[in-house]
Specification:
single chain, 298 residues, 12-stranded antiparallel sheet, two-stranded antiparallel sheet, 16 strands
Length: 298
């Protein structure tokens, strides 16, 4: 049994090798039947992890969202063993429901054995300087119940750089801080913390292009303690595809504050590309993401 941030899942073989099925009903966003993309991606990671040895750790995960599964029906997680190498192992995972493919993912694992060749060492730092001691404006507080969400998010003020005589969305950065709740007892960098970062990577990222373009979408303004809803000019939409690369496999905790910086290099009509960096409280780069989103009109 694995407690995966939203509810407990017992994975079982579905009658054939490398096929798994969820037993418990997943948590969905309040007022909807939508299962969070981060939860679906982390479930794919769990299924794939069952097929590699314990000395391999998750290194990257790339997903394409093909449709929305029902939360009231079991989902089948079908794993394909694409490669097994000395350093890397790659798995394909497809989520199916009622015989229809709803998500496809490629999961890469890397051996945890130490590197003994010539080493390259460099890493970027945070571009924003926001720092808080704890989350005080949790955007997920409304609607939380005993099944979730077991994560907190707080949006921080965006930063704009001028292009020519005025700020440009292309040169802006949105920032947020997030953490998994409650505390996780496993050691830093262990598998459950990796799954927690995957869960956190898909939320408060989709709204980055709208924030930078001054499009309001119903949520209170950043740092508004009155929690007054803004005019809903657009809905926060859906993820079309999402890739996450981990740059460390130890020392980070998903239940500590993680700072998320999102930039958007392109947007047109209702679609946008987003690049995200996830940092630990002390500034260590944990992971980077690239995500394409589609926003819907009200």
């Amino acid at each position: 049994m694995l407690c995966l941030m939203s509810t407990c899942y017992l994975w079982k073989s579905h009658g054939s090798k490398d096929v798994y099925e969820n037993v418990n009903e997943p948590w969905t966003w309040p007022g909807s039947a939508v299962i969070p993309g981060g939860l679906l991606m982390s479930e794919c990671a769990v299924a794939a992890q069952h097929t590699v040895s314990e000395d391999f750790v998750l290194d990257s995960l790339q997903s394409h969202f093909l449709g929305g599964p029902s939360s009231t029906k079991p989902m089948q997680f079908k794993v394909t063993r694409l490669s097994n190498g000395r350093r890397f192992a790659v798995r394909g995972v497809v989520i199916e429901q009622d015989g229809k493919s709803l998500l496809t993912a490629t999961v890469q694992f890397v051996s945890s054995s130490p590197w003994n060749g010539p080493a390259m060492v460099h890493s970027v730092s945070r571009q924003t300087n926001h720092s808080i001691s704890k989350i005080t404006l949790d955007d997920l507080e409304v609607g939380r119940h005993k099944l979730g969400p077991f994560m907190k998010f707080q949006r921080l003020p965006p930063i704009y750089r001028s292009v020519g005589s005025s700020p440009s969305p292309v040169s802006g950065i949105t920032a947020s801080v997030a953490q998994i709740i409650p505390s996780i007892t496993d050691a830093a960098g262990s598998n459950i913390h990796t799954l927690g970062i995957i869960n956190l990577s898909d939320y408060h990222v989709m709204d980055a292009p709208m924030q930078l373009s001054n499009i309001t979408f119903g949520m209170p303004a950043v740092n508004d303690y009155s929690r007054t809803p803004t005019h809903q000019m657009n809905k926060i939409g859906t993820t079309l595809n999402h890739t996450i690369h981990f740059h460390t496999h130890d020392r980070f905790r998903a239940d500590d504050l993680t700072y998320i910086e999102a930039e958007t290099s392109w947007a047109k009509d209702g679609r946008a590309m987003i690049s995200t960096k996830i940092f630990s409280r002390d500034g260590m780069l944990i992971a980077t993401c690239v995500q394409e989103v589609r926003n819907c009109k009200t």
